[in-house]
Amino acid sequence: DARDIGHPGSMDASQLQRRVVIHLDLDCFYAQVEAKRLGIDPSVPLAVQQWSGLIAVNYPARHRGVKRHLNVTEAKKLVPELVCVHVETIGDDEGGHVDAEAAEDDAHDVAGAGVPTAEKTDGTSHDKQSRKVSLRRYRRASWRVMSALADRCEHVERASIDEAYVDVTREVDAAVATANAAEIDEMVRDGIRRTGAVVPLTPSTSEHDRRLAIGAHVCAGIRASVLQRTGFTMSGGIAHNKMLAKLASARNKPNRQTAVSRRAVTEMMESLPMRSIKGLGGKLGEKVEAA
Questions:
Q1: Across the beta sheet with 115-116, what order do the strands follow?
Q2: Active site includes 289?
Q3: Which residue, 50, 63, 217, 250, could crosslink 191 as a Cys pair with Cβ 3.0–4.6 Å?
């Protein structure tokens, strides 16, 4: 029930603080999709291009200075061996190889838009005049991830093609109600062991932190399940609401997770650029920061 995640409704302050919300963000999603599809090792620097510009860059390439919105020529100067995979384009100007998944999709494509272009990984741009970009490859992969989440979790809200929110409050409640003390302690230890934190959790003295630690244990299980089902890594944020969970998921990427307790909110917000907060992007965020 996505409404429960976004709209807690008539919950009082105590109930809101007992919530455990997870934000899951696929790491460099388009780059992951292309690396998996082409059988490229994740350690190889790889970028996804659209025409002559880069729209996604994996972490090995980022660590060597390649950033989104560079053009292919600039990126190749930084990393000559960079693998550049063009987003799928469709049109009737050329034939090309169609992989098994694309062929299956084409069978259900009532629009009959065209045929995927032949594979190119050398930075060569496609013909912008006769072809158009198709994101169906990434939408298919996203659907598989969201399906895996729905099979594993009760409350999932798809936020975009590469991110989702999961409310695991009921799962945490059930664990507290049914597990014995030793089992709960192991969940807490496991959650803390697998999770970074803005301020260390103190589950021995704070019930809220204890619930977040159990939520972190659940988050690690969800991420492992998605990886097993789809082959894609995700980063996670665990908090008492969606905004904090989303901010947390970006702190320890890739393929890691972060919890934000109530005690950590002030410290985290003071260190964040205003532009990273939803609704305060672009010039508005810059003005707020300068005020």
A1: 115-116, 89-91, 132-133
A2: no
A3: 217
Calculate what percentage of the chain has a pLDDT beyond 90.
68
CB neighbours of 280 closer than 8 A, spacing ≥ 6?
A: 274, 288
In total, the chain counts a number of residues equal to 291
Q: What does each C-alpha distance from 162 to 10, 71, 135 come to in angstroms?
A: 30, 23, 12
3-state secondary structure of 173: helix
CA neighbor of 4 nearest in space, from 15, 266, 177, 14: 15
CB distance 250 to 235 below 8 Å: yes
Say yes or no to pLDDT of 194 above 50. Answer: yes
> Which of the following is catalytic: 163, 171, 207, 267?
163
Q: Could you tell me the pLDDT band of residue 275, with boundaries at 50, 70 and 90?
A: low
Tokens of 125: 């741009």
Q: Taking the model in full, what pTM does it have?
A: 0.82
Strands 21-26 and 163-167: antiparallel
Tell me how far apart the alpha carbons of residues 54 and 72 are, in angstroms, rounded to a whole number: 7
Q: How far is CA 71 from CA 45, 68, 123, 124, 151, in A?
A: 15, 8, 9, 11, 40
pLDDT in tens, 156-173: 999 999 999 999 999 999
